[in-house]
Specification:
375 residues, mainly beta, SH3 type barrels, 14-stranded antiparallel beta sheet, 25 strands, 13% helix
Amino acid sequence: MESSRKDRVSWCRVFPLEERENEDENCTWIGTPSAFAPRLRKEAGVGVTNNQQAEVCWLHLSSTFPTFVATLAPYDYTLHKGETCMRSRSVLLLAFLCTLVFLQTARAQQDTSSAKKAHKVVLKDGSEVIGTIEAEDSSQVEFKTLSGVSMRIPRGQIKELERLSGEIAAGEYRRFDPNNTRLFFAPTARPLKQGQGYFSAYQIFFPFVAIGATDFLSLAGGVSLIPGLKEQIFYLAPKVTPLHLKNADISAGVLYININATGTDFSGLGIVYGVGTYGSHDAALTAGLGWGFAEGEVSNKPVLMLGGELRVSNSIKLLTENWFPPGTDIFLYSFGIRFFGESLAADLGFIGSSKGWGGFPFIPWLGFAYNFGPK
C-alpha cells in the first residue's frame, strides 16, 4: 500500500488473504467482499467482486462526498485484487459534470432564444456605447443600448463600429471566451473561423500560433524558446472539424513534435486524436481519444482525455483537463481558472497525478492567448 497517499485521498484495495499486510493505524480491515459490499455500495457507489479469498483495506473512509455524488449518478464498478476506487470516483465526478453541462446548456438555449449580436459604437467625442443595431443605412445607424434606449446616430459622428464576440440577452452583454478552441493544453472540438487565429504561450517558453485556413481547417505550430538550449523543439498541429453544430462539434487532428537537431535519425513523435465538444458558451464537456506515435509506430491503445469548462462570470471560466493513459491506473488531472476579455485570455491551472509528484502535489500551469480576426 502507498501510505504517502493516505493523507490526501480515500482508498479501498482488495488483497488476497496471503498478501494481507501488517495492521496499520490508518487502515481498517473490514472483512471479505461479501461482508463489506453493501457498505461500499452505500458509501461510495461502487460494487466489488464476491471473492471470499480476499480482504479489504479501507483507508480514510469518507462518506460525505462519495454519497453526494452517488445520489446523482450511481455507478456499478467491479474491483479486482489490488485495484483502487480512484477510477470509480473519476467516473462519478464525470457523470456529475455531464449533468451540470446538460443543465447549463438547456438554460443557455432558453436564454439565447432572443439573444442578439452585440456591437460597440465609438463616437468621435470618445464616448462608447454597447448595444444592438436595429437598422442602418448610408447616413445613420439606429442603435439600441443595453438599457433599452434607442438612438439614431449619424454616421459622420461614428469613429468606430465594432462587432463584439458576445451577445446581448435580457438586457445584459455576455462576453464569449475568445480562446474557446482550447482547454489548458488540449484542443476542444470547436473550430476557428476562416481568418481567425491566435498567438499563445504555454509555460512561457512554448509559443504557439494558429489560424483558420477555412471554417473547418486550422493550421497551428510553434518553436520552443527555452534559454540555453541550442536544439529547440518544434511542433505542428493541424485540425479539421467535419461536424459543427450549435452546441456540438467533432474534430480530428495531429500533434507532431520533433527537435531541430542535425545529424540525428529521430523521426519525431506525437499523437493522432479525435475529439468532441458538447455544450454552450456557459458550460461544455470535451472528450477525446488519442493514439501516440513515435519512430514510425502507432500505439494500438488510445489515451483518454476528459475536460470541462464552466463560466462563472462575464470574464472568468473554470477549467479542468484530465488524461487517462491506457494500461495503467495512473492518470493526470488538472483544474484552474481562465480570465478573458474580448481578445485576451490567461489561464492559471494546477496539474496533479493520481500517484503524486513526490513533493508539492501540483505542477503550476500558465498560459496566455491573444486572439485576432473576425468575430
